[in-house]
Each structure stands twice: as C-alpha cells, then as structure tokens.
C-alpha cells in the first residue's frame, strides 16, 4: 500500500503530532494530539483522504491492514498510536493465522522516535520492572530539562 519512503515519512508525521505518556501500560503510550472524532479516535489526512491515525500507524510500522480487520487497543487509549499497543483482530483470526498473517507481525518494538526497545537501549525502571522504556529518549529528556533549568531567567 505504501512504499518505503512513504512509510518513513508517515512515521515521522505521526510522531510529530504525538506525545509520549505513561498511562500505566507496559510501555508508554504515544498519544496522538491530532483532531479526534467523538469516539476518541484521531484522524490524519493523506493522499486526499482521511485515515484513522492508529490504523495508519499500524500500516506504516507493521503492515497493511486487510479491510475486514479492526485494530484493537491493548492499552484502551483510543488516541494511542503506539503499534506495540495495537492488535488487529477479527472473527477470521484462525483463517488469517493459517495464511501466516500473525507470523509476519514479528515484534519490531521501537520508541516514538524509532529507537529500538531492546538490548542496551532498553531501560526497565527498577520500581516497575515490567515497564520498557527508551534509554536514548530518557537521556535526551534529562538533558533538555537540565538545559531548560540552566536557561531559566533568575531573579
Ligand atoms: Zn497505548
Ligand atoms: Zn527513543
């Protein structure tokens, strides 16, 4: 559905208008700040049509979504666009499993900025060992808050 360049560009557009928030799930939610529908799902315009941001996120981070599948939020946050918190579901699950659909969804966990959530970059807060956070983004956030503190006018 999308070529490699489009996927990269759309991942960037989704990240640009999303904030990382800890909503109590295993990893942080990527809450889309785009206009939302009354049902809580957010929208994004591309190629002259309107897409549901979470569905588009799944498509560009994972793979195209067959029309008869709905994307379920494991974290129950409808504005969340973190592909790790999304799961395609349908009544035809068994059929699709037979077609290798599930096998092809091999986890490619990354943070909102695309850093891998594995190896040295995976941070597990001691107080919440089940949580998985991005070490690079943590360091970056600490650095930025220090910078802000340093440049804050005094007196
Ligand atoms: Zn989420
Ligand atoms: Zn990161």
From TrEMBL:
Coiled-coil positions: none
Keywords of the record: Endonuclease, Hydrolase, Nuclease
Alphabetical list of InterPro entries matching this protein: His-Me_finger_sf (IPR044925), HNH_nuc (IPR003615), Homing_endonuclease_His-Me (IPR044930)
A GO molecular-function annotation: endonuclease activity
Residues covered by the HNH nuclease domain: 53-94
Protein name: HNH endonuclease
Species name: Micrococcus lylae
Highest classification ranks of the organism: Bacteria, Bacillati, Actinomycetota, Actinomycetes, Micrococcales
């Amino acid at each position: 559905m999308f070529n490699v360049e489009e996927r990269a560009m759309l991942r960037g557009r989704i990240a640009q208008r999303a904030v990382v928030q800890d909503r109590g799930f295993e990893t942080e939610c990527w809450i889309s700040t785009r206009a939302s529908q009354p049902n809580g799902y957010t929208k994004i315009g591309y190629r002259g049509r309107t897409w549901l941001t979470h569905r588009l996120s799944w498509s560009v981070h994972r793979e195209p979504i067959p029309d008869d599948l709905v994307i379920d939020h494991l974290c129950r946050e409808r504005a969340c666009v973190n592909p790790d918190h999304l799961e395609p579901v349908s009544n035809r699950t068994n059929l699709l499993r037979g077609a290798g659909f599930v096998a092809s969804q091999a986890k490619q966990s990354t943070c909102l900025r695309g850093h891998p959530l594995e190896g040295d970059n995976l941070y597990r807060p001691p107080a919440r060992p089940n949580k998985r956070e991005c070490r690079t983004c943590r360091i970056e956030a600490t650095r930025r808050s220090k910078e802000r503190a340093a440049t804050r006018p005094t007196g």
